[in-house]
Amino acid sequence: MEGIIKVSTEQLRSTASEFSTLGQQVSSLTSEMTNTVTSLASGWEGDAAQAYINKFRGLEDDIQKMNNMIQEHVNDLNDMAQRYDDANTAAVDLAGTLSSDVIV
């Protein structure tokens, strides 16, 4: 069976859904973390506080990039699943056009 690719489009879509859920969790946690860091400013002032807040805000960009990458994987997995489904449908349709009474 070398060279044969077996694909479960349901598994691809399920994994995409899991990634999407995790991406939403990352966004939610990032928002909570941002709120927590911002609330520190009410009780922590000075250069150290500002440096910490600035450092965290710099991490927000990295976290957003990571979340964008997660969403790209979601899109890629869903796209692959759709392409496999489309190819399978085309193969079934093509097979349906073949003659079944070739030998008389």
UniProtKB/TrEMBL annotation:
The keyword Coiled coil applies. InterPro entries: ESAT-6-like_sf, T7SS_ESAT-6-like. NCBIfam families: WXG100_ESAT6. Keywords: Coiled coil. Belongs to the WXG100 family. Residues 49-90 form a coiled coil. The lineage of its organism: Bacteria, Bacillati, Bacillota, Clostridia, Eubacteriales. This is ESAT-6-like protein. The keyword Coiled coil applies. It comes from the Bacteria. Pfam families: WXG100.
